[in-house]
Amino acid sequence: MEVGPPFPAGQPVPWRPAGPERPSPWAAVAAVAAGCWTVGFVVVSQLGGWLADQVLLASGLDRAVWLWPAAALATVLLVGGPALALALLPRSAAVRATGRAWLATVLVLGALGLLRAIPPVHHEAYLAALAATAALAALVLRALARRGAGATPRVPAPAVTLLGVAGGLALLLPWVWLGALGGLLETVLAGVAAAALGALAGALLDEAFWSRFTVGEPPRPARLVLVGGLVAGVALLLLAAGVGQSGAQLPLLLTLPPAGFALAALHAAARRPAALPAIPPGTSGAAGRAGASGVRPAARWLVGLGVLGPLAFTDPEEITLVLAGTRDVPFWVAAATGTGLAAATVLAVAYGALLTRGRRPSRRVAGVTAAVLLVTVGVVAVGVGQPGLHGERLFVVLREQADLGGVPAATGRAGRDARVGEVHRRLVATAERTQADLRRDLRRLRLEHTPYYLVNAVEVNGGPVVRAWLSRRPEVARVLVNQRVRPLPAPAGRSHGTAPAPAGPEWNIRMLGADRVWSQLGVDGSGIVVGSSDSGVDGGHPALAGGFRGGDDSWHDPWNGTRAPIDQGGHGTHTAGSAVGRGGIGVAPGARWVGCVNLDRNLGNPAYYLDCLQFMLAPFPPGGDPFTDGRPARAPEILTNSWGCPPIEGCDPGVLRPATAALDAAGILVVAAAGNTGPYCGSIDDPPAPYADVLTVGAVDRQRRVTLFSSRGPVPGAAKPDLVAPGDEVLSAMPGGGYAALSGTSMATPQVAGVVALMWSANPALVGDLPRTRQILRDTATPAGATYASRTQTCGGDRNITGAGLVDAYAAVREARG
């Protein structure tokens, strides 16, 4: 008898029911154990890696580039091993399919995890690499699937595809509502990466995968949804762990796995329109895949839109513990994640309940559902969302900086004013001359930009392409990414203090001897103006209202454009109170103050830090041009700066050095916080604290010991810190009229600024004489106790921990009087 194909070539082979598969119970137990191990290890490793990043950031240590590649390798070995065993050893086709799916996904995770070695500041480069890697992985998996199964006809399932689109839109909606887009290129690349990841999910959870869970006669859709959904959920968890920079993957660990159940229900529905029977285990080719091919487009849309939210509507650098103290980005990311998890759960339950009852899904109903959700997403984005693009900008530092050599070293009030005017004139002239060609080209290209003169630099609205063009220009020294926080759906809230007003001078005031300066020497800082650059100042606080200098050039807010002193965060009000506050909290209560907002939601960037330093050199009225409307004669004598600009905000070590050099040449004393990244040696590293022309201040406690959090030297080319002052549980003003005790070198810094105000108030001839002022502070300082991280970490000597010692206001003012 002739042996040949019983059916015409090219026609699908109908499946004849076979006996139900009887897998070994031990194989199922092994699969469950491997799944539990996979979920536990992945969640712990991803959360632990993010926390490690945050600890390094908070400690001021360098980013561990090797961290995420090492975590990816560990995941491949420790999760891939059990998955490989499941793929090879059990007799059960379903268990082997489980192992193959998990093995393929963990290998993809390993490749995607390597991409986190790209610094978060270069988010566009990461998104491009993510899109390319995901697309390549999808192509490889599709090629392997075709090689093993051959060409197959496709059964259209438009209703299932539309339901996949609807599900993806439901997962995207919370991010459109609570998040905000970045720049144009960043948004486009996020969309491309999301599409590639959707294609990758469709290739991972293809027809061959689902066919292994469609067994039994008659077919049992509930078994498919429960078992297949669980396996697909673990695979999607592995995929989610590799999507996004550190922090952005955490929401997906919760919102993406439930989509596995929705995809299982969609697969069950995709089989029904073609009226095909269940697909037996082991069947491949056209017969094995024809009935379920409609679920692949649904998977692409569902997973692609699901990952688009965290990729496009959040900045991974803002998912940080630095912002976790208020209702800022971490809070809203958590809210979007919770809402997305609820949406994913409802989606899985609804699809599972509706699509497994034997009813054919209606194309019209699916289309209407998808259309309604699409319109809802659009309305939310334009209405209650944060419409527009909010990407980073570029900070362009020019090669030529102003020559300030030969500026007369005149002292006293009149001499200092003359110095400020000469420095301002030279800075503006240099910037106007060297920026002319660049600014003309930027105007021609319609690129929004802001010029600066205190550092010869220009802030430009542009992305990587503009950055590459700028970097090649001969007049440009370097181009930095100028970080900008994305808008929130609601204000972060205002910080308030709950402590009562002090009954007399606080412990830190008494430790410095400032109260004796007031009572015995009759000096309170009158005649001196202190400039505060920080989160703002509550101008209505009882301890600060009377000290505001007033006029139209005493307040500047480059972040929000406010016209009167205000403070949302509280940090600036507290530091200003420690410098000039009345009622026993400020060192120099008779001095006046001017303010500038260089921090918004506890973050800054090079341009806005420079905005405030520039304003302090030559104040100008609201809306004025700093180049032409600046008033050097109105510059404050002393600047207190309780901030630092780390690399995550866009600064490099030398970006603000020309600014502090210019202020020093002008006779304006810059006092800066050492930082709170101790007790590590060499932790004074964020500008402007390491600069030699800045008076850098560490913190001590009530026992005159340097606090463990106080940053310390050594610093190349300078002895830092210069001095220490009380910085542990210091009581000062807070917005709304209250008080609070805070700790940090931020609290110590304004007290030293206040001591200098007392010195210059006592002897106006010292105004602008920065070398003599520094020498008096060092000579009159009292010993402070050094503290160490360990017996071996002495930081090269106590001088790099305590500086010259604890500032003594009483002795310094007496010495200043001569």
Write up what this structure looks like.
Keywords: Hydrolase, Membrane, Protease, Serine protease, Transmembrane, Transmembrane helix. GO terms for molecular function: serine-type endopeptidase activity. It comes from Micromonospora peucetia. This protein is α/β, with parallel strands linked by helices. The chain has 3 domains: about 25-390, no CATH class; about 395-480, no CATH class; about 505-815, Peptidase S8/S53 domain (Rossmann fold, 3-Layer(aba) Sandwich). About 50% of the residues lie in helices and about 10% in strands. The strands form 4 sheets. Strands 8-9-7-10-11-12-13 form a 7-stranded parallel β-sheet, with helices on both faces. It has a 4-stranded antiparallel β-sheet with strand order 4-5-3-6, with helices on both faces. A hairpin with a 5-residue loop joins strand 14 and strand 15. The protein starts with about 25 loop residues before the first helix and ends with a helix. The model is unreliable at about 1-20, about 150-155 and about 275-295 (pLDDT under 50).
